[in-house]
């Protein structure tokens, strides 16, 4: 931006009064103020639209990342279930319950009594 010192501002003010005249100066300043306000509003709207568009693009990227991660997790869950089912079927075919070596030996059932035999 241009740096205006006190002398430059006085020179501009004197030139405006000479060329525009003291009677039309208030109307000129009002018109310039309105134009400046319109430029500021347009600048704000442009900045706001740009920010909203950038936010939308970032949100779309985050949503895509979430969808990708969700699909990966669902696929991993499906593979784990299939693997567990395959392992379960293999165990069921070979031995119903594999023995755990840390389990104590099962007690033998008592011999049948004479009453049960008859």
Oligomer: single chain
**Please, what is the average pLDDT?**
83
As a whole number of angstroms, the C-alpha radius of gyration is 44 Å
Secondary-structure element series: HHH
Q: Are there runs of 5+ residues with pLDDT below 50, and where?
A: none
Number of helices: 3
- Strands, total number: 0
Large-scale geometry: rod-shaped
Helix proportion range: over 70%
**Main sheet specs:** none
Structural class: mainly alpha
Q: Give the DSSP E fraction (strand runs of 2 or more residues).
A: under 5%
**Distance linking N and C termini:** 115 Å
Textual characterization of the structure:
This protein has 118 residues and is mainly alpha-helical. Helices cover 75% and strands 0% of the residues. The chain contains three helices and no strands. The radius of gyration is 44 Å and the shape is rod-shaped. The termini are far apart. The relative contact order is 0.03. The model has no long low-confidence stretch (mean pLDDT 83).
Write the layout of secondary structure elements.
Blueprint lengths: L5 H15 L4 H70 L19 H4 L1
Highlighted features:
single chain; 118 residues; mainly alpha; 0% strand; rod-shaped
Brief synopsis:
By secondary structure, the chain is mainly α. Helix content is 75%, strand content 0%. The mean pLDDT is 83.
